[in-house]
């Protein structure tokens, strides 16, 4: 059921902001994919409620009670104190999303706590998403990664989860804006990337490409890739080479090909384009061109 169609049927329909935890009791609230929507009860008949309940999941706010430390973090978001904390006080927000109804929030917290030193702080946006806060008093145990946490939750508890890792911060001055930006980046990335863990540094190239006009993306891909525009095998080889930090042995291993075969493909690209992708600046430009080409194909 499309959101625009629902808005025509129910003019009062509103979306619940991601950072708003309390809902208007005069509205009936539903989960529509990853969005929470509310409709004024005055517009809903009993028949409407039955019909909507067939297609949508009723949304009820049942967020865990915040710990004293979580309340302090909530206050810091609104206070946004301009003070340099330095490396000793730096922290970061990790956005997460789990499938609706797959795990109790308290069980989720206890499971995550096993991977952390110190008391874990979680700020919930909704019953299936929120932020984990890494700070000097609460951080991942040595050797633990978010990939391992995602694998554990999936393999042992059958919970599908996605993490978006934000930057380290050393000042609260723009904290609210930062959280909003992380949320937006995470949601856009989750729709495009089929991976459990995404770092903010991974998505900026794609965002840069989206800023360009269609003509600029087309020019970039045509100028750089030339005859390889439609050679998907060659483009995948080059993309993997760049993602493997220009390491021939690792790239060949990931592609299940011999080093000589890989070197032949790289040489062929250089002979055709005149671009040596073993040079970092050239490799970055080629990577952007590949992203632009993918964007043009998808659109």
Describe the structure.
The strands form 3 sheets. This protein has a 5-stranded mixed β-sheet, sandwiched between helices. It has a 4-stranded antiparallel β-sheet with strand order 1-3-2-4, covered by helices on one side. It has 12 helices and 11 strands. The chain is of the alpha+beta class. α9 crosses α10 (248-255) and α9 packs across α12 (280-298). The protein has 3 domains: 3-58, no CATH class; 68-201, Reverse transcriptase/Diguanylate cyclase domain (Alpha-Beta Plaits, 2-Layer Sandwich); 212-298, PucR C-terminal helix-turn-helix domain (Arc Repressor Mutant, subunit A, Orthogonal Bundle). The protein is 49% helix and 16% strand.
Note poorly predicted spans: none
Helical/strand content category: alpha+beta
Strands, count: 11
Specify the CATH homologous superfamily of the largest domain.
Reverse transcriptase/Diguanylate cyclase domain
CATH architecture of the largest domain: 2-Layer Sandwich
The quaternary state of the protein chains shown equals single chain
User: What is the C-level CATH assignment of the largest domain?
Assistant: Alpha Beta
Note the beta-strand portion. 15-25%
Question: How many helices does DSSP assign?
Answer: 12
CATH topology of the largest domain: Alpha-Beta Plaits
Q: What Rg, in angstroms, do the CA atoms define?
A: 23 Å
Query: Which strand order do you get reading across the main beta sheet?
Result: 7-8-5-10-11
* Biggest sheet features: 5 strands, mixed
């Amino acid at each position: 059921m499309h959101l625009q169609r629902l808005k025509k049927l129910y003019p009062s329909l509103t979306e619940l902001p991601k950072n708003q935890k309390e809902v208007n009791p005069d509205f009936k609230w539903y989960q529509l994919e990853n969005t929470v929507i509310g409709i004024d009860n005055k517009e809903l008949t009993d028949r409407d409620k039955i019909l909507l309940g067939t297609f949508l999941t009723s949304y009820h706010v049942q967020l865990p009670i915040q710990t004293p430390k979580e309340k302090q973090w909530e206050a810091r978001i609104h206070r946004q104190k301009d003070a340099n904390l330095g490396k000793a006080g730096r922290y970061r927000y990790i956005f997460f999303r789990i499938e609706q109804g797959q795990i109790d929030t308290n069980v989720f917290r206890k499971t995550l706590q096993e991977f952390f030193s110190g008391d874990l702080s979680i700020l919930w946006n909704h019953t299936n998403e929120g932020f984990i806060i890494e700070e000097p008093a609460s951080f991942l145990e040595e050797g633990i990664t978010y990939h391992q946490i995602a694998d554990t939750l999936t393999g042992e508890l059958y919970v599908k989860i996605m993490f978006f890792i934000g930057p380290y911060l050393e000042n609260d001055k723009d904290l609210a804006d930062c959280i909003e930006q992380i949320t937006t980046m995470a949601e856009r990335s989750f729709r495009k990337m089929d991976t459990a863990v995404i770092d903010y540094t991974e998505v900026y190239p794609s965002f840069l490409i989206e800023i360009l006009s269609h003509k600029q993306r087309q020019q970039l891909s045509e100028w750089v890739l030339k005859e390889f525009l439609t050679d998907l095998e060659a483009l995948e080889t080059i993309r993997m080479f760049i993602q493997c930090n220009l390491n021939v042995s690792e790239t060949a291993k990931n592609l299940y090909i011999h080093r000589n075969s890989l070197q032949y493909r790289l040489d062929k690209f250089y002979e055709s384009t005149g671009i040596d992708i073993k040079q970092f600046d050239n490799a970055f430009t080629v990577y952007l061109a590949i992203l632009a080409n993918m964007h043009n194909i998808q659109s």
